[in-house]
Amino acid sequence: MNNFWNDYAQLSNELITVNNVISKNLKSRNKTMQAALSELLSSGGKFLRPAFVLISHGFGEVRSKDIHTLAAVLEMIHMATLVHDDVIDEATLRRGNETIQHKYGKNFAVYVGDYLFCLCFNLLSKIESVKNTEMDAMAMARICIGEIDQFESRFKSDVTVKEYLRRISYKTAELFSLSFYTGAIEGKCDKKLTRKLTNIGHNIGMAFQIIDDLLDFFGDEKTVGKPVCSDLKQGLYTLPVIYGFQTKDERLMELLSKGNFDDDNIKEIISILSENGCFERTRKLAHTYTEKAFKLINTLPDCDSKIVLISLTNKLLNREN
After folding, report:
1. Where does residue 195 fall: left (phi above 0), alpha (psi -120 to 50 degrees), or beta otherwise?
2. Quick one: fold of 10-317?
3. pLDDT value, residue 295
4. CB proximity list for 45: less than 8 A, separation 6 or greater
5. Relative to the CA of 93, which of 12, 213, 217, 296 has its CA 20 to 30 Å away?
6. What is the pTM of this model?
7. Domain residues of the chain, as ranges?
8. From CA 265, how far away is CA 270, in angstroms rounded?
């Protein structure tokens, strides 16, 4: 299990159980597919989404026998979206490891992602809660829309902040929200508490992605797990660049119009964005979502899950990798 969970002994033990559920079900008779699936599981993911399922579940009145399976499904959905994401982005690295699409080819990677989705629905079919199956299907649809929106916005200089926020709401915050919702529903939380936990997931997800987009500029390849400024090089303009477009700085517009950036171009773009306060504005918006999350968390019932959630949210939204 990822060292990220060393400070959370009970949660870490439960995540090991979730990992075992995934390992047990991540099977294929095809040797190449099995190798790819095993590599995915051992690639060093933090298991954030299953952790949120378990934390949210801790606010409920009952303990569900299916909670570890549902937590596993959320992680497997996440794994599938990452595989497909890497195909679209032609990514070579993910978490510091060679991507499935780079190692085995794009066509094979698409099948791996599809196969993971099939395994998810097979697991869901064994669970009594029809509501969870319905919500998972809706979430996958929104994630796909987010991916399409991102693909269609590549190299576009007229992307608005509103469009960007909708995109990350679908791509990232959707699964965070669903994780909290799933745990709450399975724990039989009342509607008000379930809604509150779902909103907490949304705000954490929004802040998390905005911080990720900042780290794309300032993190190093070893800690971030992928080449620095990879989004920018692919024409995926995130919030700092969108704020940069708003300044109408001619130097920035000229550089971005090239559509192909060398290291010197990247350094100059970063310098211009910094000079215009674009990174600071981005940090402020991430902080706004962080504050929204904590404002809601502070109103939750006092329990061990609340203590863990406060600590974990601080750790996630005040990070450098």
Report:
1. alpha
2. Farnesyl Diphosphate Synthase (1.10.600)
3. 97
4. 2, 75, 78, 79, 95
5. 12
6. 0.91
7. 10-317
8. 9
